[in-house]
Amino acid sequence: MSKRLRFVHLGGALLVIASVGCSKGGTDAPAPASTGGGGGVPVAPAGGGAPDSIDKLTIPELTYSTASADVDKGKATFVAKGCVTCHKVGEGKLVGPDLKGVTARRDIKWIEKMILRPDLMIKQDDTAKDLFKTYMTPMANQNVDPVNELPFLLAYLKANEA
Ligand code: HEC
User: Could you tell me which of 136, 108, 142 has the C-alpha nearest to residue 122?
Assistant: First the structure.
């Protein structure tokens, strides 16, 4: 996404340079991009950048994998993404809640949203707001990849449901 945006910005800059060049050159040559204005390039959704509301989040349709390879990968991801700094799974609370059994007490979509955008959740979701009141530390956004990391984290949490 950010690469794409950078590319678009660059395109805009080049178009500006191009049209300046044309106007200096005289009236014969119409500025090639003047009608398009660079507006034809599909960019990010309206407003640009990351969604600012949990209602606008695109949450992948995931189910819990129970394959042991996925669970192992999830455990490694849990460490690699720094979740272990704040969460234990089965030995009580740390900075944040013990995540043992979280897949039983919460809806899968809610967990996905909490992992992908905790920053929005603790401002906009009632359950997350209550957790924040209790724990008094905001869960930081760990930039979890929804395709390459999230499904494995869910598999790991599910494996530790009971
Ligand atoms: C800086 C500490 C911190 C880090 C790092 C962190 N969390 Fe959290 N997490 C919290 C806190 C604190 C809460 C409770 C809500 C709040 O106060 O923001 C929470 C809440 C949660 C919840 C909801 C728990 C419940 O009982 O409903 C889930 C699920 C969760 N975190 C998963 C993760 C995962 C997965 C990672 C790693 C990608 C992670 N967290 C990284 C601190 C953290």
Answer: 136
Closest CA to 138 of 150, 123, 157, 116: 123
Can you tell me which atom of ligand 1 is nearest the CA of 127? 27
Amino acid at 105: R
Ligand 1 pocket: which of 86, 88, 94 to mutate (most atoms <8 Å of CB)? Answer: 86
Domain boundary (33, 49, 65) is at 49
Model pLDDT, residue 26: 42
Which residue's CA lies nearest to atom 40 of ligand 1? 83
The CATH number of residue 72's host domain is 1.10.760.10
Nearest atom, ligand 1, residue 97 CA: 26
**Is the same domain home to 108 and 125?**
yes
Per residue in 37-53, pLDDT (tens digit) is 344 444 434 444 688 99
Question: Residue 21 belongs to what domain range?
Answer: 1-49
Q: Is the CB of 131 under 6 A from ligand 1?
A: yes
Task: State pLDDT tens for residues 50-76.
Answer: 889 999 998 999 999 999 999 999 999
